[in-house]
Design brief:
The structure is a homotrimer.
Chain A (H helix, E strand, L loop, with lengths): L18 H4 L2 H16 L2 H4 L7 E6 L5 H12 L3 E5 L7 E3 L9 E3 H9 L4 E5 L11 H12 L4 E3 L7 H15 L6 E6 L10 H12 L3 E5 L8 H14 L2 E5 L2 H5 L4 E5 L17 H9 L8 H7 L4 E3 L12 H4 L6 H19 L8
Parallel strand pairs in A: 1-2, 1-5, 3-4, 5-6, 7-8, 7-10, 8-9, 10-11
Helix pairs in contact in A: 2-7, 2-14, 4-14, 5-6, 7-8, 7-14, 8-9
């Protein structure tokens, strides 16, 4: 897009899309603390904080936590939450070349129209609605942001899930007191469905290395994360004094862990490179089925030790990613973690709705 | 479920699922009065009553009155109403054994997650989403309640519709002044669709016998209500000084009635016993078609007498359950009754959102 | 419908359906000014204006601007916005003779039920949900209004789109300072989809002649507007001192124009006369394809001159109705126009929710 067509190019608008990659460790640490502080306030102390601010929530993918926590959190702070469902409620916002008369509307138009009514746009898009081309959903959100005169917040794209990562870091800090040199295992886990993006582990990897944690990324060969993200995480680890290693052995990886965070994600190598091309589904499923044993069960948590905590962004596929006993057991923090989604997002909304500088 | 896995087992949380069966006559009568009193207040007197309380409304079945009245009533009292539609908006909450990776999420997880954000969960589920197995939707709601740390309100299951019954009793009391020894006919009526649960007549039967009304349950053979519900109603009638008889003759049943409440419901005998088994649809339809004459028309209302009132929970199948002339005529209270849905539910929400004791 | 069945026949309720046809020029001009004034107020000056007023938004057709602007605008004025989607959220409101047990509910019942809970009903319906029979959606809304005890607002039917026209007139007045004798071209334009109603040009035609503009209606033969609307517009032009001519040549039509407003609409001649009959789709498509050249591009805007402004109600089919360069160029007012939707509708809601007289 050329600069002359860009909407409000001079406005200081904060988008919240690639922040895990770009926001510096210092401000990120402050953000974690501000989220914890905001959570501690009673609702009556914050129920006017976003009074009369309207946010559009555009859901290309279903969700339980994201929808419920955003709609609740914003309204509990006095704001106006409007969920928009492409294809049923609204014309589907589409990029040039993908438009269908009377079914879609160009992203640049939708972004500018919504900017005329409300105060922020939040988008959830990954996987199928972006043709499973890695990075496509991320680009889509940035296109929205380029045209919107109001902040655009990612509610998960195919690269990052910044709201989840902030809730994760809040939860870990609440549990461990601090983050520096604490040991976290970010592991792949088996699921009967391969349809899950890498957004959660990638955002968490960046957030945890930024906070100087000792990070182990564990997965079977074939589930490598984005090289650019890995490189950025290595640099954060080096600069901040944490560490980052990769393991192909879950049992070994979890020894001495403070946090075991294991969830499924798809193999980037079996996704199509271009829109319209198919997922290599046979190879994807074979790779998944060859690794059915990557489940967090009691034995794995015993390897980790009794002081280790279990986290998962949910929804968890029970009996596949995790056993019932771990999920419902005393080491599981998953419901505290889910509850923190709302508080993390409230902190983010409070921040971007008082625009200071454009950070994307 | 074992006690150790139960969420917040010690909390005094009021659920609103089986209250028609379990709430004692005294408190129930008080509740009717409190609903009438709440209705009488101007909105400016109650627009902060549930300020900042967030309620999730999970709709497995469509509805006009239930959706509109709950969303309106809660927000007019200052609360936050969030409608969640399983399968489109959110992952479908599922019981163990019925889970599908990335399409469903276990009820115990959804209940605990929502409890971390909001203040109550309301659920509408009967029929198809519960495989038409009688009692299945009721059990589903109780599973939700067992895990939720916040109240669970039934917006109609396959056994009970407590919000409807309370609106019904308000309407009857407003009309008749009192309830004791007033004569109500709760009748089956023909519809071109058999897909209607017994929840409405069963809740009304319990509510009306609790209030010492003289109750006639009228239906063709084959449309018997749940034996446990009938037994409880008989006991309420005996204890409170009302009466309960069953009739298979609509014309005879309505003579001298103060209230004629006739609606369609399915035959419990033709529903499957186990999930996955089919409805005996041929027999169901035959039974319905054999009773096409069970319609409330002018002749039936003449049998009842000019002081009788006509009630229906709506939507009514005109020309099948009821004639246009009755529905739109001077004896019909159906729109006052529908309006009372909102006030009844407001009274229920006001009650359960100030938790005192767990009544389910 | 006979008078005795009409709900609240004596109430002074303002509906907002045919106002473009019926509201006199004087009051209409005042309404434009009141919308401009309301827009100028800060949100804190108007955030209690519709406090506690609940409006139901029934969407038979998808929309981006209409949904977003109504939900935002009402809530920013303190009101309660409830979107209802027929067929999924609620039983589909149906006219007598089109009812299906347990899938639909008669309009007269839905209208009266909603009147018992809330304060206004807004409906969007045209095209497919009304069987493409011209006038059917308009009649449907009036049926709703006949039974509702609260105002009914059209969010676009098959004849009129009064909210769009008011936003259009606000935008033109903001741009030109005044309206009298200003030259507007209301033109058809090509689209790859014929599925667009005549509501927008018809409402705009009535509004602009009422305001004494010099109006050119431009379209290829076969795209004639409703004769009754044309006749009313001619009368407004004559009475108010404006003018109205029809042109079949876009290039000639736009010369000297202050406003070029070009959008696609279907050919009324190829729509069915009765419900259940098909659209003459082959002839419709042929007529469209024969006129692919009716696009507003740079050349057309050059014919109009550099002081001319381009308007479109959106969504626009880029590369069909309009070129990218016009849409995104300096003469385009489309995003200001879209933003005015919210302010226009706020003025309408503020007016009808303080009922004075029934104007339909």
């Amino acid at each position: 897009m050329t600069a002359h067509t860009k909407n409000n190019p001079s406005m200081d608008v904060q988008d919240w899309i690639d922040v895990d990659l770009t926001l510096a460790p210092g401000p990120y640490a402050e953000l974690i603390d501000s989220a914890v502080q905001l959570k501690a306030l009673s609702w009556s102390e914050k129920d006017k904080l976003l009074a009369n601010k309207a946010v559009y929530f555009i859901f290309f993918n279903q969700s339980t936590r994201t929808r419920s926590s955003f709609l609740t959190g914003l309204q509990k702070m006095g704001g106006i939450a409007i969920a928009l469902d492409p294809g049923s409620g609204i014309y589907t916002p589409a990029l040039p070349g993908q438009e269908i008369p009377y079914a879609t509307e160009r992203v640049s138009d939708v972004a500018r129209v919504l900017s005329g009514f409300g105060d922020a746009i939040a988008i959830r898009m990954y996987g199928e609605p972006a043709g499973w081309v890695y990075g496509q959903a991320n680009r889509y959100m940035k296109e929205f942001a380029d045209w919107a005169g109001i902040p655009v917040i990612s509610m998960e794209c195919d690269r990052f899930h910044p709201c989840q990562a902030l809730a994760d870091m809040m939860t870990i800090k609440e549990r461990l007191g601090g983050l520096r040199k604490k040991r976290i295992v970010i592991s792949w886990a088996y699921s009967g469905s391969w349809h899950k993006p890498v957004a959660v582990p990638q955002s968490l990897l960046l957030a945890s290395t930024k906070c100087a944690m000792d990070v182990v990324v564990a997965h079977p060969p074939g589930f490598e994360l984005d090289e650019q993200v890995m490189a950025a995480a290595e640099q954060y680890a080096a600069e901040q004094g944490g560490s980052l290693i990769v393991s192909h052995d879950l049992e070994e990886a979890v020894r001495g862990a403070d946090i075991v965070y294991a969830k499924s994600w798809c193999s980037l190598g079996h996704l199509p490179r271009r829109l319209g091309e198919p997922v290599n589904e046979a190879a994807m499923v074979d790779l998944f089925e060859a690794n059915r044993h990557w489940m967090v069960d009691e034995r794995i948590m015993q390897c980790a030790g009794s002081s280790a905590s279990y986290l998962h962004c949910l929804p968890a596929d029970r009996g596949q990613e995790v056993s019932d006993k771990v999920m419902d057991g005393p080491q599981s923090l998953v419901f505290q973690q889910a509850a923190n989604r709302m508080h993390a997002q409230n902190a983010i909304m409070a921040r971007v709705l008082s625009p200071v500088s454009r950070t994307r």
